[in-house]
Write a structure and sequence with these properties.
Number of strands of chain B: 10
Largest sheet of chain A: 5 strands, mixed
Oligomer: heterodimer
Strand content of chain B: 5-15%
Shape of chain A: globular
Strand order of the largest sheet of chain B: 5-4-3-6-8-7
CATH topology of the largest domain in chain B: Rossmann fold
Radius of gyration of chain B: 22 Å
CATH architecture of the largest domain in chain B: 3-Layer(aba) Sandwich
Pathway (chain A): tRNA modification; 5-methoxycarbonylmethyl-2-thiouridine-tRNA biosynthesis
Structural class of chain A: mainly beta
Strand order of the largest sheet of chain A: 2-1-7-5-6
Bound molecules: zinc ion
Shape of chain B: globular
Helix content of chain B: 40-55%
Order of helices and strands of chain B: EEHEHEHEHHHEHHEEHHHEEHH
Number of strands of chain A: 7
CATH class of chain A: Alpha Beta
CATH class of the largest domain in chain B: Alpha Beta
CATH architecture of chain A: Roll
Order of helices and strands of chain A: EEHEEEEE
Number of domains of chain A: 1
Main location (chain A): cytoplasm
Largest sheet of chain B: 6 strands, mixed
Keywords (chain A): Cytoplasm, Isopeptide bond, tRNA processing, Ubl conjugation pathway
Number of helices of chain A: 1
GO cellular component, one term (chain A): cytosol
Protein name (chain A): Ubiquitin-related modifier 1 homolog
Distance between the termini of chain A: 36 Å
CATH superfamily of chain A: Beta-grasp domain
Chain lengths: ~100, ~350
């Protein structure tokens, strides 16, 4: 499945200072849907190169990191349970850097 | 892969905006938990700020107002929204951007580029004042001399004064800053943690410094950081977001994280903390220092020399610890008006040093 991931608000510094990442992810064994939960663990393993605690806390994003799925606040789509589909665009923005 | 109608992605959230009942919601408001569309979001976001400005009588027609501009999200959104509202509601304000150049290579020089673009994008005249010009020292040079331990004391004291000097250069009547609701809640919490009850209700005031050279106000006092960042994102505003390389304030970082954790559980917590600060009016025996002027530079000061001059003297004499922490009888020790509160009061500015929403 092909996805576009975008990092902003300083989070790009955690992944090679690259804001936009076009990635291919596979459905984990035994899962019916690919969810944000799967995506976060994939991102943490494959994209975050340093200070993962700036991005995640427990199994979700750190409070203060905003997530949008196709330009829609993930708080409207079930957060970690949001189902991700082919060609989705997922944006992560930190609110914690700078003023 | 999808047929016909699926030009835009299939919505995975609720169907319709709870304000207009027409469009798909894109955002859950932390303040009200309402699910609203982009257009309604712009409208309520801007209108709430307008209401705060009107209700608190922040401005008078004909005033010159400087926006403390760091290039970061808060001040960028503030500059954008304030110039919109000024036009839309005929505030009659002359708006300016005011930036401080602390002299931090790789941080402030980059963020100043953002402010220079904002100058063009919003058509607001920009004034930059630098530590180097005002004090003869850049932050880089100060850090080289004193290390990373107390640099935020320098940064904070110098910035406060630099802003007032910049505002004086611009001959403005007021200075507005981008402090948002999250920042103010954090400051309330830090004042409690420091036992500084005297500052508790004052730090929630929407306008401060009316006794000083230039009043400062915070039109975003009730505006959530989440909404500011969402607004900047949807409007594609150009802002700069890298941490100050000299800001290791772990204590503040912890308070911030605590507030964000609370917000996740109960978003109203931020407004409630501000309310608690506002309602804290206890009889306090802490005396506020009498205001005079600095004998050396003329800036307002409760002591013989202002804090910046004391710090500067230390730097220039190669004694950079001078003026940090409690006075030890040097320079200002002989001064009669030193009250207990005046000697130890260090105001907690929201935002880390260098992240410059002042
Ligand atoms: Zn709507
Ligand atoms: Zn002075
Ligand atoms: Zn600093």
């Amino acid at each position: 499945m092909q996805l576009t991931l975008e990092f902003g608000g300083g989070l790009e510094l955690l992944c090679d200072s690259e804001k936009i990442h076009k990635v291919n992810v596979d459905l984990p064994n035994g899962a019916d849907d690919f969810t944000m939960k799967h995506l976060l663990s994939w991102v943490r393993t494959n994209l975050i190169k340093e200070r993962p605690e700036m991005f995640m806390k427990g199994d979700t994003v750190r409070p203060g990191v905003l997530v949008l799925v196709n330009d829609c606040d993930w708080e409207l789509s079930g957060q970690l349970d949001t189902t991700i589909e082919e060609k989705d665009v997922i944006v992560f923005i930190s609110t914690l850097h700078g003023g | 892969m999808e047929a016909g109608e699926a030009k835009s992605k299939k919505p995975r959230g609720p169907r319709l905006c709870c304000i207009c009942n027409q469009r798909r919601p894109v955002l859950k408001r932390p303040k009200t938990l309402q699910q609203i569309c982009r257009e309604c979001f712009y409208e309520v976001f801007e209108e709430e700020i307008h209401q705060v400005i009107v209700k608190n009588r922040l401005f008078k027609s004909g005033e010159r107002v400087a926006i403390g501009a760091s290039g970061g999200k808060d001040s960028t959104v503030l500059a954008y929204v304030l110039s919109e509202l000024n036009r839309r509601h005929n505030y009659g304000l002359d708006l300016f951007l005011l930036s401080i150049d602390e002299g931090i290579t790789g941080y402030r020089d980059d963020s100043l580029e953002t402010v220079k673009r904002n100058e063009v994008q919003y058509g607001l005249p920009l004034q930059i004042v630098s530590y180097k010009d005002l004090y003869g020292w850049t932050m880089d040079e100060i850090v080289k001399m004193i290390g990373l331990k107390n640099n935020c004391t320098f940064c904070g004291v110098f910035r406060r004064q630099a802003l007032d000097r910049g505002a004086a250069l611009l001959k403005v009547d007021k200075l507005v800053t981008g402090h948002n609701a999250d920042d103010i809640a954090e400051t309330v919490l830090l004042n409690i943690l420091r036992g500084d009850i005297a500052r508790l209700s004052r730090c929630t005031s929407i306008t401060t410094g009316e006794d000083g050279p230039i009043p400062r106000c915070k039109p975003f006092k009730y505006t959530y950081e989440k909404e500011i960042v969402m607004y900047a994102y949807f409007k594609k505003l150009d802002y700069f977001s890298t941490e100050c390389i000299y800001s290791p304030n772990a204590y503040r970082g912890f308070a911030r994280e605590f507030i964000k954790d609370l917000e996740r559980l109960r978003p109203r917590a931020i407004l409630d903390i501000i309310k608690s600060g506002e309602d804290f009016r206890i009889a306090t025996t802490t005396k506020m220092p009498e205001q005079g002027t600095c004998e050396r530079c003329g800036y307002i000061s409760s002591q013989k020399w202002c804090k910046a001059c004391v710090l500067l003297e230390g730097l220039n004499r190669g004694l950079p610890k001078m003026g940090i922490g409690r006075p030890r009888g040097n320079l200002n020790g002989d001064h009669k008006k030193v009250t207990k509160a005046g000697a130890t009061a260090k105001s907690i500015e929201s935002k880390q040093c260098g992240s410059l929403d002042f």
